[in-house]
Amino acid sequence: MRKKKNIERLKESFGRPKSDGFRFDLIEKYFKNKKNADSFHVISNKTCNDLDFEELFMFLDRTTSIIGQQCLYNKLRTIPNDNNDHDKNEKLIKTLTDDIDFRINTQLQLEKLNKSDVYLISSLFQEEHKKPPGWFFIIRILSFTSILSLLMLPVNPKMLFIFLGVFVINLGFHYWNKRNLHKYLGSIPQLLRLNKIANNLNRNQQFKELNPDLANSIQTINQVRRRMSFFRLEAGLQSDFDVLFWGILELFKIAFLLEPLLLFGVLRQLDSKREEIEKVYCFVGEIDILISIGSLRKGLEHFSLPVINDSKIIAVNVYHPLIADCITNSIEVSKKSILITGSNMSGKTSFIRTIGLNMITGLTINTCFAESMTIPRARIYSAIRISDDLMNDKSYYFEEVLTIKEMIEESSNDKSNLFLLDEIFKGTNTIERISAGKAVLSTLARNKNFVFVSTHDIELTDLLSDEYELYHFSEIVKENNVAFDFKLKEGKLKNRNAIRILEINEYPKELIEEAVGISKKLDEIVATHALVYPINK
């Protein structure tokens, strides 16, 4: 009956977001400790913050196991060097989506890896293990003495006193080791379970193609299975067995110092099997990810598989998956980068984020939120959400300077880069902001780079018209109402409605008149300055 309910639950949940809580400190554990130096690009914490990555992950994550969840997080933060596995993966995603029984049976296996201790498995192949102290030979001597005195007891009853004396000494060493043992009581039993589930899944020929040599890794871990089974028994005894039986077993372990001998013996063997453990871990995680991608797509009205083209970005009816009833937009970028003008709340920043997150999902899970999407394999950098770093005594402007400096350094490498910027240098005065902004944006747009930048500074549209395609978002002001259509339009913004919006919100009449007058004078000054001192583009 319980299994039947689980099956119905898994069927109903396919295509829907999770309702679980998200422990990102544990979810990102595998990613943080993994060396991804051989990947094309690792998405930085700064870019993740700018693109609301945690909210995006909570929407994308439809995994069944904790291992799948950790592997999905790592996958979304790491852009690979190629897409060679996509055809094979797409075939499996289709099978898992269409063959309900196959998918459900797989998920029932994966659900067994859903206890909180599963988060700790990655530590067995990513973190340093406890090393035995230099005096550990004493424990071996004491264990041997206990065994010898017990064997000689029928011959010499006085050996009982030696046995009891050693037992008292062993008591101290036994409880000294409890802290070491506790660290592995969760992870090692879960590794045994993982290995068993991987073995079950690997019997399926379609899964076997993910890693044809996985059987060797499973067998290698099985070589330590008997010793590791002690940890599973220990973990079970603490919660399932009665106190009397546990007490007798504890006395036995103290007498012969079994715990420290078994613990450090197992850790020594596991230390030489890190690569095999990670292969098994990633095999199970990848299967869960493929089911998750299928579930994600099932719940979308439309999505597309990206076409990789390093010379252009083409988005047709692209949308932001976290915005309800999001208005779609289309754009094509090839020879020039993109400069977007528009008022606050008109959609500029959301569109820039839309491009960024579609690049991430397209290059990592082969899924774009668009009718069609052509994207380059590019590294992604952003300067969107910047704030004062009071703990390190850094102002908003200085923080932005450091962020953009990193972009400039990366812009001259031989790889494509996608730079996403919102209101560049808005922490400084107008003249220097426009001057520095123009110079920076010209630099970033060189080589094979793509830049998407928003600005309120209309002057930048004239200064950058040779290097950037101009687009804008606009609002419609009617009587006492302001409406946004959130549609991307070609060309620069021509209408200014900021003062009009103040008027709609019933600012004092004399204040509005003064603002209009100053605005006209400033326009005259700027026009005169442009005629007398033309700026060299």
From TrEMBL:
<keyword id="KW-0547">Nucleotide-binding</keyword>
<dbReference type="GO" id="GO:0140664">
    <property type="term" value="F:ATP-dependent DNA damage sensor activity"/>
</dbReference>
<keyword id="KW-0812">Transmembrane</keyword>
<dbReference type="Pfam" id="PF00488">
    <property type="entry name" value="MutS_V"/>
</dbReference>
<feature type="domain" description="DNA mismatch repair proteins mutS family">
    <location>
        <begin position="335"/>
        <end position="520"/>
    </location>
</feature>
<feature type="transmembrane region" description="Helical">
    <location>
        <begin position="134"/>
        <end position="153"/>
    </location>
</feature>
<keyword id="KW-1133">Transmembrane helix</keyword>
<dbReference type="InterPro" id="IPR045076">
    <property type="entry name" value="MutS"/>
</dbReference>
<protein>
    <submittedName>
        <fullName>DNA mismatch repair protein MutS</fullName>
    </submittedName>
</protein>
<dbReference type="GO" id="GO:0030983">
    <property type="term" value="F:mismatched DNA binding"/>
</dbReference>
<dbReference type="GO" id="GO:0005524">
    <property type="term" value="F:ATP binding"/>
</dbReference>
<feature type="transmembrane region" description="Helical">
    <location>
        <begin position="243"/>
        <end position="267"/>
    </location>
</feature>
<dbReference type="GO" id="GO:0005829">
    <property type="term" value="C:cytosol"/>
</dbReference>
<dbReference type="GO" id="GO:0006298">
    <property type="term" value="P:mismatch repair"/>
</dbReference>
<keyword id="KW-0472">Membrane</keyword>
<keyword id="KW-0238">DNA-binding</keyword>
<feature type="transmembrane region" description="Helical">
    <location>
        <begin position="159"/>
        <end position="176"/>
    </location>
</feature>
<keyword id="KW-0067">ATP-binding</keyword>
<dbReference type="InterPro" id="IPR027417">
    <property type="entry name" value="P-loop_NTPase"/>
</dbReference>
<dbReference type="InterPro" id="IPR000432">
    <property type="entry name" value="DNA_mismatch_repair_MutS_C"/>
</dbReference>
